[in-house]
Protein: SprT-like family protein
Organism: Clostridium bovifaecis
Amino acid sequence: MKKEELIRIRYFENEVKNKRAFLRNEFIAKSKNISDGEIKKISIGDLQLLFNLYDKYFFKNYFKENFRGKITFSLSKRMTRSAGKTIVPRINASLEEDKQKYEIRIGINFFFQYYELDREKLVAGAKTEDPLHALFMVFEHELIHFIEFYVFGDSSCKNKRFKETAMSTFSHKDVSHSLPTNREIIDKSLGIKIGDKVEFSYEGKIKNGIINRINKRATVMVLDKGGNYIDKYGNKYSKYYVPLKGLNKI
Ligand SMILES: [Zn+2]
């Protein structure tokens, strides 16, 4: 297979499903950390293994046999919105292949926290069945970024070219995910969010107001003629810092 052919791969949807199923079996058999669909622990070695398997099942070992650049993998606990990221130095495109560097970074919290919310979780347009399936879909998305950077020197999943390549290679129908984010998990577990009306007791009296901020405590704005805060309608408020446990939604 030639470099240019990487972006001309066409698999039918059922072929993709078959390949992914074989890949999953082999991954589970070889991973030291993952033994079923759940992800409790993951290493950089797991991502390297995943890359080698995608190369084998989807790219006819093109990368093993021809790629002379360097691809590395990393895990991040700080990614709050993207579940994956492909990082390429700006000068890459002007370098000889053997000097090119690529990095795929995975935001691991999304997979550790997969079950924290009981709802449908889409990745790249597919309803995922478990954290491992979600990881595969995110990884596939990043592989398309990687291949675009490698072949064209740039990549954006907003572009038509990306969407077409992701569709023909992996049957991806979308470029986003709806995996639970930290923010969403916190909001859900407390049952409150910014803008909610709440009541709480303060010095023996019940007060009610609107949540303005949530940190360790919530900031609640309570209507008060003598208050120091004023909104654009001229209403005056006092500010209260209330422990989250002391709030009731109304
Ligand atoms: Zn993307």
